[in-house]
Amino acid sequence: MAMLKTLVLQAALLAACASAWYLPGTGPKDYHDGDNVEVQVNVLTSVTTHLPFDYYSLPFCYPTKKFRGEPENLGEILMGDRIKPSPYEHVNVGEPVDCLVPCGARSLDAAAKKKLTERIKDDYHVNLLLDNLPLAIVNEETGMYSVGVPLGTVENGVAYLYNHLHLTIKYYQLTPDEVRKTLEARRRKLGNKAPPKPTIDLDDDDLPTIIRIIAFVAKPYSVKHDADAPAKTCSHGNFSLQSLPPQKASDDHVVWSYGVSWEETNEAWTTRWDVYLNVQDHEIHWFNIVNSVLIVLILTAIVAFIFLRILRRDINKYNRLDIDPEDLQDETGWKLIHKEVFRAPSHRWLLAAFAGTGAQLYGMALVVIIFACLGFLAPANRGSLFTAMLIFFVFLGMYAGYTSARLLKLWGATSWMYIFATGTVVPGVGFGVLVLANLALWAKGSSAAAPVITIITVAALWLCVSLPLVFVGANVGFKRDTIKVPVTVANIPRHIPALPWHMNPWFTIGISGILPFGAVFIEVFFILTAVWLNRYYYVFGFLLLVFVILTITCAEITIVMTYFGLCAEDYQWWWRAFLTSGSCGGYLFLYCVFYFFSSSLRMKGFVPVLLYFSYMGLLSFVFFVMTGTIGFMATFAFVRYIYGSIKLD
């Protein structure tokens, strides 16, 4: 744990040092008058099917330049992004265009008509990129941006195709002083290759015009061009959106066209993502925080009462030198099972594997959230969040092995096969879900299906990096001294008396997860909405607060329930402690089921439903392991403390 704290501190220091500069790929890009601005295409997406398809799987125009996709990181590939050049090649700074036809009329056969109609009815959206900004449409009532432009619309059962996009690019023009600073920055960067004349001495009229792109929005139209002479209907003098009939998806030909307009704005480049990340209902987030804090305060009060009143009274009574031994014979409760409380649990290899991987997951979540709060995982860095999660999980395998080894040595089980289980049980479940989902996507022809080389890369990171690090950490853990416990274990197990119904382990485990999950479920709603409704989630400040509250709540509820169990002379607390806080994972899955049927997902088809429950089942399982580890570690420290505080023969 100390090593994990050191790693987090070092990461925070590095982030603080790096905050003075723009991160690679996220700095502003300057454009001059007449510069060509590249427009790229991404996959077609739908919140109904959640099956992305390649942009060029439909009969769009092709670009004239060399056709190759952009290099993508591991996170982008696994998230389904496939960025390629677009046919919108004549987008030049300061040059408005009413209508341009990137290619001639495209003939539509029966298969193409059927595919277009199906995609429109499934509410697929076209996704374009310009200067790393996603294309969006603006809600005129709220001013909010919605990513992607609909492929078409359905009216009276007829599918109409949006074959004309009018692109509006908002830009900020640098002031003369800002231009001078920008040119001087370039001069310093060039060094000896810089021009001899200092740009700071130039007059305002001699300075070049420099702009930075702030927003990229579009308005779609359905326009039926003349298939025989599309350039004629699209000419500046004849083009009129109102005078042309709409384009049906069932027509024999389609002509694609687009227009471009430029609008100056006073908004700063640093705030251009705010309209995408603008979080509505801030009050709900704060209500969740206040509600969670109240839960923590109540649990803290209960724990404080146990420590300051009951435990102190019991410990002082038990440690009195003048106490009559006959009085102890009538004692009941946690003190009488001191010879049993550290007896090794059943299936200790599995508990050690869960606890080790849970520590790994907790470290990964904490570090990733901190980095996201510091701005290192901004949405401008596509795929960076998923890549960071994967990389941190892989390299924190050493902590998983170390934690498991320390527990296994305490329980007298130092087999390396148990360490192998630590590195394979939970990651194996995750990899299995990835392969299952990939097969389903491949069967549907979705572009989200990861290439074989990507699956091999993920497997190599797991088996060739993470698993060896697990063994390295375990080797360090086995070499450390055994964790000291205050009492030895009796040779013969003590009989556990019959427990009242309200202390039945399964009953207490079932109800204990309500409070921790209640502290986070509102944030879970926003995360699910962002993931499944194609929105951005970037309120990592709230998420960090909720994560801290979740940690405290899991620790305190597990300590309280374990104490009640020990008072009932039930010394089999190891698994109970893990499952008590781990039951949050069960409630998370139940909430995911509720969200599926009550939200606006509108999923249809077997594969989308399979993907949803596969991913949500994996998320719930991972949440179960992580929260279970939080409660388990906190309870272990609590039990060692209270039994170390009494005098034992």
TrEMBL record:
Transmembrane domains' residue ranges: 286-311, 349-378, 384-405, 417-442, 448-474, 506-533, 539-566, 573-597, 609-639
Keyword annotations of the record: Golgi apparatus, Membrane, Signal, Transmembrane, Transmembrane helix
Single Gene Ontology BP annotation: protein localization to membrane
Predominant place of localization: Golgi
Cell location: Golgi apparatus; Membrane
InterPro entries assigned: EMP70
Keyword Transmembrane attributed: yes
Gene Ontology CC: Golgi apparatus; membrane
Pfam families (UniProt xref): EMP70
Membrane topology per record: Multi-pass membrane protein
Keyword Transmembrane helix: yes
Superkingdom, taxonomy of origin: Eukaryota
Signal sequence region: 1-20
Family under the similarity heading: Belongs to the nonaspanin (TM9SF) (TC 9.A.2) family.
Identification of the protein by name: Transmembrane 9 superfamily member
